[in-house]
Design brief:
With about 140 residues, this protein is mainly alpha-helical. It is built from 4 helices and 2 strands; from the N terminus they run ααβαβα. The chain has a two-stranded parallel ribbon. α2 runs parallel beside α3.
Length: about 140
Amino acid sequence: VFLTRHGARIDKEDRRWLAKAGHSRHDDPHLSAAGKVGAQELAAEMARRHAETPISHIVSSPFVRCMQTAQPVAEALSLPIKVEPGICEILQPGNFPPGFLDTAELAKDFPAVDLSYEPAIRRERLTVEYGDGAA
């Protein structure tokens, strides 16, 4: 099992990102330019590892930043992305439910999405969780 975090987020570099994003999902920032480079680097590394030990599945949170990180890996490995809402993070518990796109919407921009995958936890079953400060 390989676990990775999404690439660098635009909201950490540009406080006005949401005004430029074309949507109102404040908890769904896309990758920054550096994050996109990191996603390509990850794809190259995973392709190298895949040649040694075949990887069978790619599972991603539905947030755009996660999908942008997973898509180059999926392309490099010729694998689909299984979108799993149950692994999304809730950035602001006061703003629930999280503002990510549905799988069918994600598939429009991310061709590797596996539309036949049945998530373990669907959006409607998500519950508010505690942030790192409560741990």
